[in-house]
Amino acid sequence: MNDREYMARVRAMEGRLYRVAQAILWRQADSVDAVQEAVLRGWMKKGSLKDPERFEAWLTRILVNQCRDMLRRRKREDAAELADIPSEDRLCEDLQLRMALKRLPEKYRLPLLLHHMEGWSIQDVARMLNIPQGLAKSRLYQARKALRALLDGGDGK
Predict the structure, then answer these.
(1) Is 119 helix (H, G, I), strand (E, B) or coil?
(2) CA gyration radius for the chain?
(3) How far is it, in rounded angstroms, from Cα 25 to Cα 142?
(4) How far, in Å, CA of 61 to CA of 113, rounded?
(5) Largest CA distance in the chain
């Protein structure tokens, strides 16, 4: 894959990358940093991509790893201010849904975003998150159940 093709494919999935980063990091500035770093890392490793048809999943996996690295390096604050939550996100137009999604642990929120909001198959979600397919299905089930409980006024457990 040459540099021009790489950048064209990155531009085509730019919105998706930002939404995934925001689902993990919540803060817009951190999300922008994570996407930029993931794109740079992907560019440097583009020669290791075995199947160009899997480019989107490959780059999304690099982004997920980058976001997790950022969370490990920086102590994440428990409650981000409402102003820090991206209001333009199509997932979070409703305040109640936004707050419920924020309360879900990342291990449930991320598969939910990737599968239901971004349209990835369960198999792709499992690959991106480096977990077995059965665990991805289980986490999706648990995420839907917890989200439903949160929206119904429960505590999500």
Answers:
(1) coil
(2) 16
(3) 21
(4) 14
(5) 51
Q: What share of the chain is helix, strand, coil (3-state, %, to 5)?
A: 75, 0, 25
State the architecture of 93-157 in CATH terms: Orthogonal Bundle (1.10)
Contact criterion met (CB below 8 Å) for 84 and 27: yes
- Which two tokens mark 29? 């500035």
Domain ranges of the chain: 1-88, 93-157
Residue type (1 letter), 140: L
Give the list of residues 6+ apart from residue 154 with CB closer than 8 angstroms, or none: none
CA angle centred on 50, ends 49 and 54, rounded to 5°:
75
How do residues 86-144 score in pLDDT, each as one tens digit?
444 444 446 677 778 888 888 898 888 888 878 888 898 898 888 999 999 999 999 98
Beta strands in the chain (DSSP E): none
For tokens 């309360």, the residue is 103
Token representation of residue 60:
């999304």
Domain 1-88 class in CATH: mainly alpha
Q: How far apart are CA 59 and CA 35, in angstroms?
A: 10
pTM of the entire predicted model? 0.61
